[in-house]
Amino acid sequence: MGYQGTKAKMSYSFSKIIPNTDSVYIENEKFKSLFGEDANTLVLGVQTDKLFNIDFYNDWYRLGKAIKNISINFRGTLNMPIKDVLSVAHLPILVRNDSLKRFDVMEMVPERVNTQAELNKLKEKIFDQTFYDGLLLNKKSNASIMHITFDSEVLNSESRIEVVNKIKDITALHMKKHNTEIHYSGLPFIRTVMATKVKNELIAFIFLALLSTAVILFILFRSLYMVVFPVCVVIMGVMWSMGLISLLGYKVTILTGLIPPLIVVIGIPNCIYLLNRYHTEFVKHGNKIRAWSRVIEKVGVATFFTNLTTSVGFGVFFLTESAILKEFGLVAGISIMVTFVISLLFIPIIFKFLPKPSKIQTKYLDNNIMDRFILFIANRVLKGRRLVFTITIIVVLVSIVGMMRIKVEGFIVDDIPHDTKEYKDLIFFESNFNGVMPFEILISSANGGKFVGKKQQSLVKKMERAQRIIESHNEFSRSLSLADGYKLINQAYHNGNDKFYKLPRSMDLVKMKKYLKEDDSRGLGNKLMKKFVVDSSRFFRIKTQVQDLGSVHLPELRDSIQKKLLKVFDPQVYDVKLTGTSIVFIAGNAYLVKSLIQSLVLAFLIIALIMAWMFRSGKMLFVCLIPNTIPLIITAGIMGYFNIPLKPSTVLVFSVAYGIAVDTSIHFLAKFQQEIDRHSWDTAKTILAALQETGKSMIYNSMILFCGFFIFTFSSFGGTVALGLLSSITLITAMFTNTILLPSLLMKIEGTIKNKGLNKTGSKLFIKDEI
After folding, report:
1. Residues in a beta bridge with 106
2. SS (H, E, C) 375-406
3. What is the CB neighbour count within 10 angstroms for residue 325?
4. Three-class secondary structure assignment of 667-690
5. 442 Cβ partners below 8 Å, 6+ apart?
6. pLDDT at 691
7. pLDDT tens digit string along 430-443?
8. Distance between CA 431 and CA 19 in Å, rounded?
């Protein structure tokens, strides 16, 4: 499995969230089949009043040329991954060619501008190109943008990282002397940043998880044996998780990349429960074999069920229709159970051959501070339950109020912290050009026909009206459509006169069509028209970009635009679809949150059924569920009070943390059922005995889980930070509810326990005769 793990590959494409059958997915795939990838443009931006200074302008020109000429070894052959570069220094324009009766596509800017006077004249010509107005230059803020279009195959491969790094190196080389900040954005850049960080964090978090758990183990047990071999167990679990990713044909994504460090964090508690019980038994009689025999009998079944519930907490994601969640759930669920089996076999076998535990190694069992803390808990449970219940009710009520304030909202760049340059660069483009997130409108005939002749002219006029509607919203960037193409033709036909940048009259259009030659490699058809109309005039697009408004405001804007477009395009004649990466994100975010909530409910039900079968008692089930549900309510309340929105990364917390938190209850109740008969069904004595034997393990494990999840707060991704922080809070809260509230609830049903004997059929799972 370790060898297979070395074959695991990173994912460099957008993770597929919505299922193939979803209408949004189908429409977007249809759009991409017609017009190609919409999220293939990286943008560079500058804000300077030196843009039309000859020295700066020439370097901006040379930068674009150098980027266009980037070459890489892609799949064994030399490849030019950049298909196009567009900026104020790289402007293709249409020129009327009367001799050949066509429009030629020419570069406006020569190889080099020699004088400032020459550049000043060129600047006037550039400003006359109304087609580019608002696309490349913000005249008010002196901001300029360079569009860099990727080859679609390179875009979704590991080579994209190499290309982006080359672009950054070339940019630094050409623009360094100007001391002007360069801003980078666009989905190719954002995806590259995220893929690189996922790869780096995968290694870093595995190391941090191993280091933190190793330090805690050494502090607790003061023995290298007690550190090295549990660490070996979780390393084997990590090998299995990476091997499974490879064998199942999956790739490492932002979610599956979390599994290896999670296995470290979740696998160590298995070892602690086994070793703690081993030391407790060994101290009683000094016989290693007898000690391990009792460990397997008394802890083995309980540990199996604790791992089963944890596995369920992750595994339920496999039952969703989201590919990224299915992969995460399947690999995590299997890896957790495999790690349990490894620990149950490996730890007893190894420690059977190791020397007997020394007094130093078992000294932690006589920890006076811990003993006093457990005695304090026992006193609260036995003598101060009213205070425990009162505080619990108050905390729950306050948390419910906070929970009611939770917002459901996510952003495309949610995972990028707001204090990073990447996020600040995105804000730069949104401030100066209104957005870089693709937003597309696909237009076709309601009956599947073509738009030619007068029908096309009528459609073009409607698209112009639609564009005015779009651009009346400040959230959108400058839009482009076939209407702009006709305006550009009209201007070119009138020798570049910007007064003619408008839709041509019908008579002029007849003359212009003689200059449109679709089969000419230098003609307009191949350079412009095919960007906006395909399939013999059956499908048309309006292309724009939108700000990253989030899953609340973006759907509102989408719906508003949709309603307004219905007034322009008669639904009986036109089929108008809103699509593009932004629209897919809206659907994906809503689908993901819905799936995660369903998964939480499913995990809750499955785990409840498991515990119902284990304990064969409705009241015991109720007693077990309450202390593990309250931490989720408290975490939700914290989210509401601190304005942490409900989004995929934060919804994930509840199912994962619930599956882990239940483990503590199962261990305590298993011990409680083992001891209840020996103490003549005296609930108080049994609780005290159970706390003394399992309390330390429960607290130690909670400390390790808290520290293990807390390391995720050092992530570069906001979603991972939220997962780590909220899971840590949930698990540490669960420690207190399971060590204080759970025993208090058992005391509350003391009469039922004495009268019904806890249903002894269920107790047989855990009660073993003394050897």
Report:
1. 93
2. HHHHHHHHHCHHHHHHHHHHHHHHHHHHHCCC
3. 24
4. HHHHHHHHHHCCCCCCHHHHHHHH
5. 27, 30, 31, 34, 539, 540, 541, 576, 577, 578, 579
6. 83
7. 888 887 888 999 99
8. 34
* Residue 333 near residue 602 (C-beta atoms within 8 A): no
Which residues in 118-160 belong to E strands, given as ranges?
A: 137-138, 143-150
Span between the terminal Cα atoms of the chain, in Å = 39
Q: What sign has the CA pseudo-torsion 378, 384, 385, 391?
A: negative
Confidence tier at 770 by pLDDT (50, 70, 90): very low
The answer to whether the beta carbons of residues 670 and 431 sit under 8 Å apart is no
Question: Domain map of the chain by residue range?
Answer: 191-404+585-763
Q: Which two tokens stand for residue 107?
A: 């570069």
- Which of these, 608, 636, 601, lies nearest to 624 by C-alpha position? 608
| 386 contacts 148 by C-beta, under 8 angstroms | no
418 Cβ neighbours under 8 A, 6+ residues apart:
none
Average confidence (pLDDT) over 109-138: 85
Residue identified by tokens 């809503």 is 590
Of all helices (H) and strands (E), which one includes residue 106? strand 102-107
- Separation of alpha carbons 328 and 320, rounded Å: 11
Contact present, 648 and 410 (Cβ < 8 Å): yes
Segment among 202-216, 393-407, 665-679, 729-743 with least mean pLDDT: 665-679
pLDDT, one tens digit per residue, over 293-308 is 888 887 778 788 888 8
Asked if 288 and 645 touch (Cβ cutoff 8 Å), the reply is no
Contact (CB, 8 A) for 85 and 201 = no
Structure token pair of residue 318: 């496999």
Say which amino acid occupies 278: Y
Closest CA to 177 of 58, 87, 90, 52: 58
Q: E strand or H helix at 608, and its extent?
A: helix 581-615
Tell me yes or no: is domain 191-404+585-763 CATH 3.40.50.1980. no
Tokens linked to 734: 């669960």
Q: Which residues contact 403 (CB under 8 A, 6 or more apart)?
A: 633, 636, 637, 639, 640
How many whole angstroms separate alpha carbon 325 and alpha carbon 253?
A: 10
Torsions phi, psi for 767 (to 5 deg): -80, 125
Q: Name the token pair of 183.
A: 């801003």
Is there a contact between 512 and 489 (Cβ–Cβ < 8 Å)? yes
